[in-house]
Design brief:
alpha+beta, four-stranded antiparallel sheet, globular
Length: about 350
């Protein structure tokens, strides 16, 4: 095992965005970072996965190449980041995106050797082959829908030694809707330097749930479920404890310090105060009517509604016509998704 837990910074680059995919599912109301869409395995994972939580059902079915992995997610991150940047520059996003393979490899801190290109090709095959089925509630009706992460990927140009140059990817409607709505979260660039898939998954969950709050706690049993780990709970605890121990020694986890509360069998994510907020991500919503907070407490009993408001303001990309009603709707969805704290 390497002495230092992070991969080397191969290609210095700017920050990127990570798509909050399930929150942006067509007519859906779920958070991708809450559910185990991507496999933690570094070997082909061909087991179908069924996940149920708070009335939400998600089934992930692999192709013969296996489930898309946490590291395969880099392809989506790059595509979404590129399109969001274009939108911020006034360009209309396109569902088919063409890019230089080397740009993706550099932006996501991957190797630009022949092996790096082979791994990128395999990642696109798994992303195209993985199918997701989920129940989506819209207009009071439950709809069961099946979709993929990307519809297809094509190598447009390839060099004589087999290295891809130009790549074309068609994003699924599911992901493309997220881009058009700009439902994204800022992701630390250090995310791409995390070696272990479980480290990346823990960071995603902390980024989603803790956000800019002081801390976030979760039981090991629930954390294991959200990570989609196939290990026993005892082995999962050991793996998480090893990450927390390394973070205590090196402080390598981005944005959040990871600790274990052994008395309660909890993981604790503590905000380092480094989470970025890009102006393009936030709508300048005026202060709310003070009377709305009591209604918010009724909509999300047991929760800190000021913390929910902070999450709502960071999530919003435009000023609602009626901010108070929009905030109350966000509180109801928050409670429906999470239940009581």
């Amino acid at each position: 095992m390497p002495d230092y837990p992070l991969l080397p910074d191969r290609h210095p680059q700017g920050d990127f965005f990570v798509c909050d995919i399930l929150d942006a599912a067509p007519k859906g109301d779920m958070g991708s970072m809450e559910h185990p869409i991507f496999s933690l395995s570094t070997k082909p994972d061909t087991r179908p996965r069924r996940y149920e939580h708070n009335g939400i059902l998600v089934e992930i079915k692999p192709s013969v190449d296996g489930l898309a992995t946490v590291h395969d997610r880099d392809v989506l991150i790059y595509c979404i980041s590129s399109l969001i940047k274009g939108m911020n520059d006034g360009k209309e996003p396109q569902q088919v995106i063409r890019f230089q393979a080397s740009d993706l490899l550099k932006a996501t801190n991957r190797m630009t050797t022949g092996r790096g290109y082979q791994l990128l090709k395999a990642a696109m095959e798994r992303l195209a082959g993985t199918r997701i089925s989920t129940n989506i509630t819209t207009g009071g009706k439950e709809i069961f829908e099946t979709f993929g992460l990307i519809e297809r990927a094509k190598i447009v140009r390839e060099t004589r030694d087999g290295r891809m140059q130009e790549v074309e990817v068609k994003l699924s409607d599911w992901v493309f809707n997220a881009i058009r709505a700009q439902e994204v979260l800022t992701l630390s660039r250090e995310y791409f330097r995390l070696r272990k898939p479980l480290e990346r998954r823990i960071y995603e969950l902390a980024r989603k749930h803790c956000g800019r709050q002081k801390e976030w706690r979760v039981s090991m049993a629930v954390l294991q479920k959200k990570c989609g780990s196939g290990s026993t709970l005892r082995e999962f605890r050991r793996l998480v404890a090893a990450i927390a121990k390394e973070d205590g020694e090196y402080g390598h986890m981005p944005d959040y310090r990871i600790r274990i509360d052994e008395t309660r069998d909890h993981l604790v994510a503590l905000n380092r105060g480094t989470v970025r907020t890009d102006v393009s991500e936030m709508a300048q919503i005026p202060p709310l009517d003070p009377d709305v907070y009591e209604m918010a407490r009724q909509a999300a009993p047991g929760w800190d509604v000021r913390a929910i408001e902070q999450e709502w303001r960071q999530w919003a990309t435009e000023v609602p016509h009626n901010p108070e009603m929009a905030f109350l709707g966000f509180c109801r969805k928050w409670f429906d998704r999470r239940g009581r704290p």
